[in-house]
Specification:
157 residues, single chain, 7-stranded antiparallel beta sheet, 25% helix, ASHA1/2-like_C, Alpha-D-Glucose-1,6-Bisphosphate, Chain A, domain 4, 3 helices
Length: 157
């Protein structure tokens, strides 16, 4: 991170999953399925994950960092609002992330799903602004790569 007040970062990640588009979309839309790849992890303890999957609905993830992380015991909160949902094709959500109550970023995230021979192409586009003391664009991109890897493992089961 630089010394400027904010840093902007954008990235796009493309993934192919050998699963039907409906299954991929459901994994992003159904709160109980999404929780398993998006929220649950060995590196933290989930305090809450709630998702009201509809335009205008909210999503909230709160967890405590685990003992082997840079912030053991510290709370992370990610709160979002769904702005656009096209069944089976697209999800757009804006979100605000905070650590220990201090905002670290605001983002616009777009998930696009398209049928291709033998499966589904998923495109994740992230547009964000990162505040002082945040993880920054490179670490957030790595985080999304990890999440989409987890989604792929879930879809393979």
């Amino acid at each position: 991170m630089t010394n400027s007040a904010v840093v902007h970062g954008n990235f796009t990640i493309d993934r192919f999953y050998p699963a039907a588009p409906a299954k991929v979309f459901a994994a992003c839309a159904d709160p109980s399925i999404k929780k398993s790849w998006y929220a649950e992890s060995d590196t933290h303890e989930i305090k809450a994950f709630d998702s009201d999957f509809r335009v205008g609905g909210t999503e909230r993830l709160t967890y405590l960092f685990g003992p082997d992380t840079p912030f053991p015991g510290v709370e992370l909160t990610n709160e979002g609002v769904f702005h656009d949902i096209v069944d089976g094709q697209r999800i757009i959500i804006s979100s605000r992330m905070a650590i220990a109550g201090r905002p670290i970023s605001v983002a616009l995230e777009t998930i696009e799903i398209a049928e291709v021979d033998g499966g589904t192409d998923l495109t994740c586009t992230f547009q964000g602004v990162f505040f002082e003391g945040s993880d920054g664009p490179a670490m957030r991109e790595q985080g999304w790569n990890d999440l989409l890897d987890r989604l792929g493992r879930l879809l393979a089961d």
